[in-house]
Design goal:
Structural class: mainly beta
Subcellular location: Membrane
Strand content: over 45%
Keywords: Membrane, Transmembrane, Transmembrane helix
Organism: Chromobacterium subtsugae
Protein name: Translocation/assembly module TamB
Mean pLDDT: 83
Number of strands: 78
Membrane topology: Single-pass membrane protein
Radius of gyration: 49 Å
Number of helices: 8
């Protein structure tokens, strides 16, 4: 049996599945990978290659819609880059950046940090344009100040920032910035401004409420007065607090306050403000402001919620008239309250021009009500040319802002004024002058009118003058009685048209009758009608006609035989007539004018003038102009004669100008000749045929040159050769565009600077010659090279001596690229070399004292030995100096920053024995401050080191220098040597010099010369000899506090002394007082040579207890090995010394003298002879003391002796010459006066009473002598 299985119904077979398409996926993936690879390669090419980086930045102009462009690029994104000529054009600001250089560390990105090693920005110029006011939402507080990466800028430098059109500049910014993820830290290391320099530090938290702390310090000058300022910030960004102060000589500022800058209500943003300012001159801050001496106080604080109240008090201690560039306001005080509804003013008053003002009222959002009361206000104190009157009255302004009303009622002694005006709103707003009445004495003027403020801006004005006297209004105007009516009407919108009619009623001026009328109608670039007929006595001025379009004709006539009637500044006679036709571009003129003895206001005068002109419209018509002027005075120019001629036709004519004149007391003669013609477009084209200017300096055109002049201001001078300043000037071309831009090129050779002597006074003698080449394109790109081609500079020395500077090269180069002016200067001489380069922003040629400077200066003195010639004989110099300084700041007061180095420095003075060698110098210049980091010299076995600072911010520089001496050899000569150690400080502050410290002599040997020429006393006057100028140190205010320690090895010799000294003396001095000293110097041992004898100093002390030049003396000196201890004692003071003879035992003075001089007592009949011999020995010894050749020189007595051989040697007088070789050994020579005996004597002192004497000569002898003394 078979089984049956039901099968499912047969279903349609599904189509087989599509096979996988790996090729398409691979193709898409390959395209994606290729695209990504190309993108990465492109990014790599852009960021890692100089060419790609430059290409990408070059597309910024197109990508930004012409808003951002970069002129030149160097480097890559990853390795650092430099950009030049960066321009950013915004809606309200244009920013030009001269250069930008960035060095950074890309590897720091892997640590989550953006690290910029250095960011240097050149000159930055920001030009702000007025922008329409737009309502903006209130400033909202930020939620966080966190950055996605840590950011650190190690060094940020900005050359300058200039804000236009204010023309305000900041210079040389140096800063560093660090964001560590929690706090922002900004360190402003330096920022220079026109008033000084500033430094600041700021720390700001990145999390709310953004804790804030910082301090700004600044120092500078206001009116040459040094000032220092400080500003402290605290609190947080949501409620910052500030306090600061500024101090100077008589200048002070104190400010404190707190803010809520993000409060929705602007009147709640101020928490507190309290400011006090003393003795500030606003002109010192902004030169265009008037000069004053202001002290003011301002306070403001919240009042009852959303309202602020405050007050102001201002005092000006140096008021003055505006005409003297001063502020006439002397006092201003007032209080206010402000909220969203109104601003209220109360208790407000001022003192102005000797009078008083009071202001009251309130200002609301839709209307105002203000009143100003004037009392006894002097107009002359406001301005020197104002009428001399004192006025009082009231001015008011009230009503809605859309239609306010203004009124004034003023009255003085003889001046009165009243006015009423209002502004009407609606669809046709207009200013209505309902009344303006002015009175001066019996005269009066009244005016009323209307001015439309929309549409055609139609206006009309009616005025009347009755019995007006000009002399009452201003000095220098003529007296008169003027009566007239005036009517004006027209429209100010395009096309503008103004009509006016003036009718003079019977009037008088300067006592003469005045009458006439005038009517004028001015249209768009055309005088449509002019009718004028004015008569003042015999003076008459007439005009009639029109001018501006073809067919118009204007006739003029003047006949003024007496111009003095016009006022005190007028005189002379003027007569003439003329006719003007054609159009302004091609005028037709026929005129004659002459003047005699003419004098005009402003110092213009001439003896005679004649003018005649005849110009036709036809190019072939005659063309004639002539002008002759004699004895012209105008400003600083005095012309004896001027003569101008033009003749020919309009198309072809010639021009001549010649004259003789005096300028700045220099006589000149001018001759000029040109030929050419006027084209139909009013362009003159021809040639300059002659140009001669005789004088110093003078010039001469060597050959004719093409010349073109346009009516729009364009001009072109073709190739020209001129003789100028003793050399030649070759112009390839010189062109002036209509906008004033210059272009062209040329060269100069052999220009002598001495030719500018009358105009350029130099303090040095010189005979320099210069050459130059230059070129300038119309686009503002050019070069100038100026170099010395010959001559030298003579440096002045003392006694009329000069030495040549020895210039080798001197060259200056300027490069202009329409954005900046770059310069390069180099000088090389036999003494020094210097090279500088830098740049200035061009700013369209607007370069002045505030223009920021950026540059570098390198200077070197390769051998100081060359400077010894400048210092005179006896001085030896050596070593080299070098300086590398960066320049910045404003051009009128550049600041330098850099180092000065010196190596192998040497200074030796053969006259004093001072010798300094192996010297080194390291100093830093920072603005107007020089920091002496190290100055070291070696002398002998020791050295000296100095460090300190010099501040040149004030008119008198301040200096503080510390000097350290270590076994330093001050001088080293055979008779003079001094080695010292110690510390001292030398300061020069406020014009006062101070010296303090302690100096110890490690070793000293000071010797004075034996013989010197005598000096005249201070009270001796030599007729015909100029008095010696006092030393600069003698008149310098000096303060001294110095301790001088002589040490243990100080030896002094001179004037008979040979001693070793020790002791400590404190020397002090104050300005205007004699130096004083405190202390004592002791004589440890030594000798004193007097009376021809060597005296041993047994005790010596010099005590200082007052004036330095008059110490107290206490010195004892005895004859060596004297049996009686004969010697001298000196006591008292240097000014009044007391000297007496001493011995161990009492005896008469004549015996003391004999024992001192002869070495024995005076006895018997020989007393007189002994005393005579003593006197002779004293005289001879005194002479020998100064000469110093021998210790023994004089005449002595020799006793009768019996020699060992029985020969008797008689007594006689003997001449003795000898020298003490040691304390015991003596060598001498004896020569008998009455005999021919002579001998060499050798004596040795065994003890105080026993000696041995040997003689060798005519007779030989030996003796042993023992002396026993008894009375």
């Amino acid at each position: 049996m078979s089984e049956h299985h039901d099968l499912p119904p047969e279903t349609p077979q599904a189509p087989p599945a599509a096979p996988p398409r790996p090729r398409r996926w691979r193709l898409a993936f390959s395209c994606l990978a290729l695209t990504l690879a190309l993108l990465l390669a492109g990014l790599g090419w852009i960021s890692a290659s100089p060419a790609g980086f430059a290409w990408a930045l070059g597309k910024l102009d197109w990508l930004s819609g012409q808003r951002l462009s970069v002129g030149a690029t160097q480097g890559t994104l990853w390795r650092g880059f430099a950009l030049r000529d960066i321009r950013l054009r915004g809606g309200a600001d244009d920013v030009d950046i001269e250069s930008l250089r960035l060095d950074w560390q890309p590897a720091a990105l892997s640590r989550g940090e953006l690290r910029i090693s250095r960011l240097d920005v050149g000159h930055v110029r920001v030009l702000s344009r007025p922008a329409p006011e737009q309502k903006s939402a209130p400033l909202a507080a930020p939620r966080t100040l966190a950055l996605p990466l840590r950011l650190k800028v190690d060094q940020l430098n900005l050359a300058s920032l200039t804000l236009e059109p204010a023309h305000f500049s900041l210079y040389r910014l140096q800063a560093a910035y660090d964001y560590d993820g929690a706090r922002h830290r900004l360190q402003l290391q330096r920022l220079d401004s026109p008033w000084g320099e500033a430094r600041a530090g700021l720390t700001l938290s990145a999390a709310s409420p953004f804790a804030l702390s910082g301090q700004l310090s600044a120092k500078g000058e206001l009116e040459q007065v040094p000032v220092k300022a400080r500003l402290d910030l605290s609190g947080d960004l949501l409620k910052p607090a500030f306090s600061g102060e500024m101090d100077g000589k008589g200048v002070s500022v104190d400010i404190a306050g707190a803010l809520r800058p993000f409060d929705a209500n602007p009147f709640n943003r101020l928490v507190r403000l309290d400011a006090r300012v003393g003795n500030i001159n606003p002109q010192a801050i902004l030169p265009d402001w008037p000069k004053a001496r202001l002290s003011f106080a301002v306070f403001a604080e919240p009042d009852a919620g959303q309202r602020v109240k405050g007050g102001l008090t201002l005092v000006n201690t140096e008021p003055g008239a505006l005409s003297a560039q001063r502020l006439p306001l002397s006092l201003l005080a007032g209080e206010f309250r402000a909220d969203e509804q109104a601003l209220e003013l109360f208790n407000s008053h001022a003192e102005l021009g000797g009078g008083k003002l009071g202001l009251v009222g309130e200002v609301k959002p839709d209307r105002m009500k203000l009143a100003l009361d004037l009392s006894q206000l002097s107009l002359r104190q406001l301005h020197a040319s104002a009428p001399d009157d004192v006025i009082s009255g009231r001015l008011t302004a009230e009503g809605a802002f859309a239609a306010p009303r203004f009124a004034a009622q003023l009255k003085g002694k003889w001046l009165q004024a009243s006015a009423l005006a209002e502004l009407s709103g609606g669809q046709q707003p207009a200013l209505l002058l309902k009344k303006l009445e002015l009175g001066a004495g019996s005269g009066a003027a009244s005016v009323n009118g209307k001015l439309g403020l929309s549409g055609k801006r139609l206006f009309e004005l009616n005025g009347k003058l009755v019995h007006a006297d000009p002399a009452r209004l201003r000095d220098g105007l003529p007296s008169g009685d003027l009566n007239a009516t005036l009517k004006m009407a027209g429209q100010l919108a395009e096309p503008m048209e103004v009509g006016a009619k003036l009718q003079l009623a019977p009037s008088r001026l300067s006592g003469a009758p005045l009458s006439g009328n005038a009517s004028v109608l001015l249209g768009e670039a055309r005088l449509k009608q002019l009718l004028l007929d004015l008569k003042l006595a015999d003076n008459r001025l007439q005009a009639s006609g029109s001018y501006g379009v073809p067919g118009d004709k204007l006739k003029l006539a003047v006949n003024a035989p007496n111009l003095s009637l016009l006022g005190p500044g007028f005189a002379g006679v003027v007569q003439g007539q003329g006719e003007l036709a054609g159009v302004p571009k091609i005028p037709v003129l026929s005129a004659k004018l002459q003047a005699q003895r003419l004098r005009l206001p402003g110092g213009v005068a001439l003896q005679s003038m004649q003018f005649a002109g005849n110009i036709k419209a036809d190019q072939a018509s005659p063309f004639q102009l002539s002008l002759d002027v004699a004895a012209l005075q105008a400003g600083g120019v005095s012309a004896e004669q001027l003569r101008a001629r033009a003749s020919g036709t309009r198309a072809r004519h010639s021009l001549q100008l010649d004259g003789r004149f005096q300028l700045e007391q220099q006589n000149y003669a001018l001759q000029l000749a040109a030929a050419g013609g006027l084209s139909l477009d009013n362009r003159w084209q021809g040639s300059l045929q002659k140009l001669e200017l005789a004088g110093k300096p003078g010039l001469s055109l060597q050959a004719p040159a093409d010349l073109t002049l346009g009516a729009d201001g364009q001009a072109r001078l073709g190739a020209a050769r001129l003789a100028l300043l003793g050399g030649s000037l070759n112009l390839a071309e010189l062109t002036r565009q209509a906008n004033g831009a210059l272009s062209g090129g040329g060269s100069a050779r052999g220009l002598r600077l001495s030719e500018l002597g009358p105009w350029l006074k130099l303090p040095l003698e010189q005979n320099l010659q210069f050459d130059a080449d230059w070129s300038l394109s119309p686009a503002g790109i050019g070069k100038l090279a100026l170099w010395r081609s010959g001559g030298d500079v003579q440096l002045p020395l003392d006694k009329g001596r000069h030495v040549a500077l020895g210039l080798k090269t001197a060259r200056a180069e300027l490069d202009l690229d329409s954005r900046q002016l770059a310069f390069n200067v180099s000088v090389d001489s036999r003494f020094a070399q210097a090279q500088g380069q830098g740049s200035l922003p061009w700013n369209g040629g607007r370069i002045d004292g505030h223009t920021p400077l950026s540059g570098n200066l390198r200077a070197s003195l390769p051998s100081l030995a060359a400077l010894a010639e400048l210092s005179g004989p006896g001085l030896e110099l050596g070593g080299q100096l070098a300086a590398n300084l960066d320049l910045g700041g404003p051009l009128q007061m550049p600041q330098a920053q850099g180092q000065i180095r010196g190596d192998k420095l040497k200074l030796a003075d053969r006259r004093t024995g001072v010798s300094l060698s192996d010297g080194s110098l390291l100093a830093r210049v920072d603005g107007r401050q020089l920091t002496l980091q190290q100055l070291r010299f070696v002398s002998g076995k020791g050295e000296v080191n100095a460090s300190g600072s010099l501040d040149f911010s004030d008119a008198q520089p301040d200096a503080r220098v510390k000097v350290s001496l270590q076994k330093f050899s001050v001088f080293d000569r055979p008779n003079r040597r001094l080695v010292v150690s110690g510390q001292s400080e030398l300061a020069f502050v406020g014009g006062r010099l101070s010296l303090s410290g302690r100096i110890r002599a490690d070793q000293g040997r000071v010797g004075l010369p034996k013989l010197g020429a005598p000096d005249l006393g201070a009270d001796v006057v030599v007729v015909g000899r100029p008095a010696a100028e006092p030393s600069a140190f003698a008149t310098m205010p000096l303060t001294v506090a110095l301790d001088l320690d002589l040490g243990e090895r100080f030896r002094f010799s001179g004037q008979g002394l040979d001693v070793e000294l020790s002791g400590l003396v404190h020397v002090s001095a104050n300005p205007g007082e004699a130096p004083a000293a405190r202390g004592q110097v002791k004589v440890d041992k030594g000798r004193y040579k007097a009376y021809g004898q060597d005296l041993d100093i047994t005790f010596g002390a010099i005590t200082f207890n007052g004036p330095l030049d008059n110490p107290l003396l206490n010195v004892q000196a005895k004859r060596r090995l004297s049996p009686v201890g004969a010697g001298v004692e000196v006591t008292g003071s240097v000014a009044a010394p007391k000297v007496r003879l001493i011995t161990d035992d009492p005896m008469a003075d004549k015996d003391k003298l004999a024992w001192l001089v002869l070495g024995r007592a005076a006895s018997g009949d020989r007393d007189n002879n002994d005393l005579a011999a003593s006197a002779g020995m004293m005289l001879a010894g005194s002479i020998n003391d100064h000469i110093g050749l021998f210790d023994d020189l004089g005449v002595s007595s020799r006793k009768e002796k019996t020699l060992s051989n029985g020969t008797v040697s008689p007594a006689e007088q003997v001449v003795t010459v000898g020298r003490q070789l040691t304390r015991e050994l003596y060598l001498g020579y004896e020569y008998g006066i009455s005999s021919a005996d002579q001998a060499v004597k050798l004596a040795y002192q065994l003890s105080k009473g026993w000696s041995v004497v040997l003689r060798a000569g005519t007779a030989m002898s030996a003796e042993s002598r023992y002396t026993l003394r008894f009375d």
